[in-house]
Specification:
about 140 residues; alpha/beta; Leucine-rich repeat, LRR (right-handed beta-alpha superhelix); 5-stranded parallel beta sheet; 4-stranded parallel beta sheet; about 20% strand
Length: about 140
């Protein structure tokens, strides 16, 4: 029997969380889990799927940050996780990896609540967040010289 190359489980009313053992499917090229009721965080072990070319997770209830181990998915060319509560880690390594993916559809960077920021007063944090959200902050660039 040949190795499993694709797992298409979209629209199957799946519930629960993803098992870390999925990371053992070393020949897997396609993992399609769209339109289910899956929840929880993504197991970092998915970053071991070195043959994975397409990962589609949208329309689920996943939460948390995309594991940084995903930067090891060098064959990945399609990654979609829109309509979830997943977010992108704020790291240069992740941003560099993301730029290599030809079709990328997600939800944006992880937002840290102002209640967890201690470097500035909470009301100042909330004012900056409001400015970012109302002034297309996702499209801002670093213009520091």
């Amino acid at each position: 029997m040949s190795a499993l190359l694709g797992l298409h489980l979209d629209f199957n009313r799946l519930t629960g969380s993803l098992p870390s053992e999925l990371g053992n499917l070393s020949s897997l090229q396609y993992l399609m889990l769209d339109h289910n009721q899956l929840h929880g965080s993504l197991p970092p072990e998915l970053g071991s799927l070195s043959s994975l070319q397409r990962l589609s997770l949208h329309y689920n209830k996943f939460t948390g940050s995309i594991p940084l181990s995903f930067i090891n998915l060098n064959q990945l060319n399609v990654f979609s996780f829109g309509e979830t509560q997943l977010c992108e880690p704020m790291s240069p390594e992740y941003e560099a990896w993301k730029a290599t993916i030809s079709s990328y559809s997600g939800t944006g960077i992880c937002k840290i609540p102002c209640s967890e920021i201690t470097e500035i007063p909470q009301n100042e944090c909330e004012a900056l967040v409001a400015l970012y959200e109302r002034a297309s902050g996702a499209f801002w660039t670093n213009n520091i010289k």
